[in-house]
Amino acid sequence: MSRPRSPSPSRETFVLGPHVVPRIWVGLWQLSSSAWGTASTTKIHDGMAKHAKLGYDAFDMADHYGAAESLFGGFRKTLPSTTTVFGATKWCVFRQIDPSRTVVECAVRDRIERMNTQSVDLLQFHWQDYSDMGYLTALRILQDLQKEGLVSAVGLCNFDAVHTNEICAQFGSGFIVSNQVQFSLIDTRPLHGMADICERHNVKLLAYGTLCGGFLADKWLQQPEPEPYTGSLTPSQRKYLDVILKAWGNWTLFQTLLVVLRTIGDRHGGRSIANIAIRWVLDHPFVGAVLIGNDTIILSSKRRFILGTHKALDWEFPNIWTTISMLTDSH
Ligand SMILES: NC(=O)c1ccc[n+]([C@@H]2O[C@H](COP(=O)([O-])OP(=O)(O)OC[C@H]3O[C@@H](n4cnc5c(N)ncnc54)[C@H](OP(=O)(O)O)[C@@H]3O)[C@@H](O)[C@H]2O)c1
């Protein structure tokens, strides 16, 4: 079973199955490509330690995020036995498989080994093809493995509202603790269906894309529309630029949104655009945590991440959301 965690110095926390975890997690997708920079294992462990010390002790990873799971497992080994960190990973099934007991157990044991633990703190399950109902078999086996102590909590990853509801109804509330999906000021899809399902079954949303790969930040204020392939955009920024321009609106409207967020930040203690964008997501009751992609671990400069996110916490000013909703709803 999972080890009890030391009290976190993070100011905002929430209950996720048997765990109490911070409301901002460190996302490790950014370890998967040199586009975000490279660093030695020692530097990455040092970066993780600095974040954990300040309460950012929950890390989100996957087996396809480069060496993220092994790096996290190595980091765990460096910690004294009294210090614990929270490791969420994923089992993403992108192609057709037979989810037998052996296949599912192997997937879990691989992660246990890489992450240097007795029990995966949170295993987030993704199943690509809903027409193949094997996801229900896989989840039944994950439930058995949870009872046997190999998994501490089970979540979903990128499941739609219909199938999240189906699974929670079939397995009973309490088994699935979370669903990881995209949620931001420019991608509000979870508000239409998913929010109700989460509240009905006490599933917490774990949000990614909240900063749109870094576009929802002061450095993009009054900047011209970037070229997707000729500049220095990261792989995620290319993806999010597409969301801004094709699914959401256009660059001019996006600049208007940044101006509104800047004005709100100025009126509230000089908070950054990123602070406001994170707070907007956190203020939805069905949201458990926001996952912030952390290239600064690689660059070994914790300053921007920590200062940037700290000021998104412990701050409530709900009526500002009316202004933002008016803007986002009007496009
Ligand atoms: N399940 C999925 O399908 C899925 C998909 C994507 C991501 N994720 C998870 O979510 C995590 C977050 O990834 P994301 O795509 O959502 O990225 P994101 O958090 O929207 O953006 C990350 C980028 O924001 C910028 N940034 C970070 N802290 C900042 C701060 N305090 N102020 C201003 N800018 C800041 C940095 O970019 P610059 O350095 O360029 O400014 C960083 O690379 C991933 O690591 C992963 O764990 C999951």
UniProtKB/TrEMBL annotation:
Domain NADP-dependent oxidoreductase: start-end pairs: 23-293
Any GO MF annotation of the entry: oxidoreductase activity
Membrane spanning residue stretches: none
The organism's place on the tree of life at top rank: Eukaryota
Gene3D superfamilies linked: NADP-dependent oxidoreductase domain
Pfam families, sorted: Aldo_ket_red (PF00248)
Name of the protein: Unplaced genomic scaffold scaffold_293, whole genome shotgun sequence
Organism: Paxillus rubicundulus Ve08.2h10
